[in-house]
Write the C-alpha cells for this entry.
Amino acid sequence: MARGARGGRPTGPRPRVQVAALIVAGVFLLIGILGYIPGITTDYGEIRFAGPHSDARLLGLFQISILHNAVHLLSGLVGLVLARSIAGARLFLAGGGAIYLALWLYGLAIEAINEDGGANILPVNGADNWLHLALGFGMLALGLLLSNQVGTGGRLDTPSDRP
C-alpha cells in the first residue's frame, strides 16, 4: 500500500474491518447520546444512575440508566481509538462481540434469578438481552470474517505443503 507524501498513513481506502469498527463505534456513541435525550428516552424523569429501578427506556423499549448510557459512550470511544489500526479494529469487533455475548448471558441470569434484585446493576431487560445477543454475534462475525485477508499476507488456512 502506498504511503502519503510525508510517509505517514497509507493512502487509499481503509480495510473493511476498520470501516466496520468505525461504524459500530459511531452507533455506540449515537445510542449513548440518545439515551440522554428526553422524548427519545421515554420516562426520562425516572432515569437512575444504576440498578433495576431506572424506568427510563430508550425508544420506549430498552431499559437504560446513566451507567448504561455511559457504557455505550465508552464503548464508542474505545472503538474509535482502536479502529485506527487493523489489529485494533479486529480486537474491538471480536473482543467487543465476546463481551456483549457475556452481557447477554448476564441478562439471562438476571432474568432467571430476579430482575429487581441488586445484581441488575446496568439495568437490562428482555429487549436488551435480544439486542446484546445480536450485537455479540454481529460484532464477532465482523471482527473474524472481515479481517481474514487484511494484514496477513494471504489466506490464513493455506498449508505450506499445498501449491
